[in-house]
Amino acid sequence: MQVLHDVDLVIKEQFTLLKGSKILYLDTAATSLKPEMVIEAECEFYRRRYATVHRSLYPRAQEATKDLYLTRELIRKRIGAPSVKGVIFTRAATDSLNQAAQFLMQIIEGGGEILISPLEHHANLLPFKALEKKGLLKIRDLPVHPSGAVNFEALFKMDLSNVSALTIAHVSNVTGVTQDLKQLGAICRTKNWVFIVDAAQSLAHKKLDVVDCEIDFLAFSAHKMYGPTGVGALYIADRFVDLLEPINYGGDMILELDRDMHFQEPPLKFEAGTPAIAQIIGWKEALNFQNSAIFEKKVETFGHIASAYREGLKAINGVEILSAPDSESIITFVVNGVHSMDLALLLGEKGVEVRSGSLCALNALKFFEVNSFLRVSLGIYNTLDEVDSFFNKLKKVLQIF
Ligand SMILES: Cc1ncc(COP(=O)(O)O)c(C=O)c1O
Question: Fewer Cβ atoms within 10 Å of its own Cβ: the N or the C terminal residue of the chain?
Fold first, then answer.
């Protein structure tokens, strides 16, 4: 227990926003707070090391280019990608998934159907909906259990003859369920479907291996991984990365220009224009933080903290927990007769910062037949000690209704 307490102290020391503050930040699934090392790396780059990347040859520009590649290499390792050529910097998971949808169109020229779970975040639904609207693709519901886990039995009862792709969140931002990517990847490979994974909620606290899980496209955001906003990545599997045409055109991605365009090799081919250099450099420090022993030790305790929240909620009359029973960092619930947004607003006034509303998943509201969710989500800085304070404040707020 003392060891854990020490770990908590060391971690909290990194988060200035929380130091000496009574704020209880429980909205990491929306965006994580930033450790000092990330803030410092970004500031220091702007302050003393600022330069562009790729094009210029003076030492500072070469240093910045090197740093950018170090970030890419750390990402490659975190997701088990065979090489950096399939690790493309984007603006964030939303941009990555929009690009994945466009790339999918190049792959499945004949169209077909894509399986999407009814619990997906809009970022992993609307890019495909837009294609469906143009008549290029048909969306089919991927059957799921109430926990959000894929219902394989129901899946195999479906007529899957026109399916060409499947997309799903590794960890749901609504139920916190973790999908069995290995099993899904094996099914996709056997059936020759393109396998797209939204890892926006998982890569903050979980590792995954894109090769082992046979993933074709993997999307994620730095700002949910303790890194800066404005940057993310899209991994593209080797079997596609050399065949795809870029989606964005401009500087840095072209090698030769005659009547035709001759592109740089991937990943540069897919990264037109000046990237978010300072943010990518900040992201490197976030990845180093995630790789530290103290970070990994703390992540192992998430299950206990999540259980403490679930147990506390179960003891309150009228609370219905909607997240998966084994969710490690997300606890979503409703309180009968009380609007989640009213609760979130009043909790916020007491320094308890939770998320309410649709969680950018309007279909999930329909799935659970509720009008609004309340979500507690955990980050590396949350502790078991905070749980009592959360429930004291929640109970006080509930007395108002
Ligand atoms: C599961 C999931 N996918 C995608 C996104 C979109 O991420 P971003 O807003 O960083 O692009 C989110 C953000 O909340 C999410 O939770």
Answer: N
